[in-house]
Specification:
This protein is of the alpha/beta class and about 350 residues long. It has a single domain, classed as Luciferase-like domain (TIM Barrel). The protein contains ten helices and 14 strands. An eight-stranded parallel β-sheet has the order 10-8-7-4-3-2-1-14. Strands 5-6 form a two-stranded antiparallel ribbon.
Length: about 350
Amino acid sequence: MPPPGTPLQKLGFLTIGSFDGADPRAGHETTLDVIRLGEQLGYDSAWVRHRHLQYGISSPVAVLAAATQHTSRIELGTAVIPLGWENPLRLAEDLATVDVLSGGRLNPGVSVGPPMHWDDVKAALYPDTADIEDFSYERVSRLVRLIRGERASGFRGREGIEEWSDRVEPHSPGLQHRLWYGGGSLRSAEWAGAQGMNFLSSNVVRAEQSQEFAEIQASHLQTFRKHSPAGAAARASQGLVVIPTDTATDEQRAKYAAYVEARSDRVGIPQGPGKLLFAQDLLGTSEQIAEALYAHAGFREVSEVVFALPFSFEHEDYVQMLTDIATRLGPALGWQSAPVG
């Protein structure tokens, strides 16, 4: 294994929070169990995906509100909330409320663009305004301004026995510094940096300059910091699917290998009109994965990561993966676990 460079400072994980449509509570409770385990293992952050009209978490803010009451230290994030489904004012209220409940641990990640399957859902989502909804970066800017405490109303003061504010309440001042933009293009990286946001880079990018995933991801991270007021200190995170096998059973190893193989056909080949390029899932021992990461141009641009857990596995599989990442892969990358209370 090559010698490590800068030690990894922050280690997080991302889960889709899948559930059975016939028994949705069990899946949501399992997601809370996974987040609790992450805190016990010393992870710095736990993130949840956002899946509308699927059998995955449709309301990550509600799930993280519950998680605030089951944890005390670990940071809680969304990767990512698609703002095409949201009213920025209402979302700002929800995010601020959860941040207050968490004691300042919320890390909201967002993205823009029309909702997936737009023609199928627009009549239910925006029956009267579908043709005029703005799905541009301005939707993020509205959210950021509201979270910062800029005016949301022209009225402030007392009316009868009720007191009215002209900004989003509760106001959580630190939340504005923990807002992330999830982007997969040079334009998104540049925009997020210029706005002073943090930047989430995942296992999907646009093949704009080449078809080399690591090279593209590294360029996004460099572009983000180039345009950020914080420069080299701007927070950015890399996210890849990582499956360590150190303590896995033979059955688990076979299952994981089949999963990675089934997804390999799309690797290195731009997909669809958006030219989406998917990263190779990293499967193997922690030593093998660490070696692959040290050789990865995108990984070399960050000091924090949010490793994505693969879809469709059992709870005991996730326990094994999370434990191996925290106790073997993380230390191999120079990471030190947070104190466990």
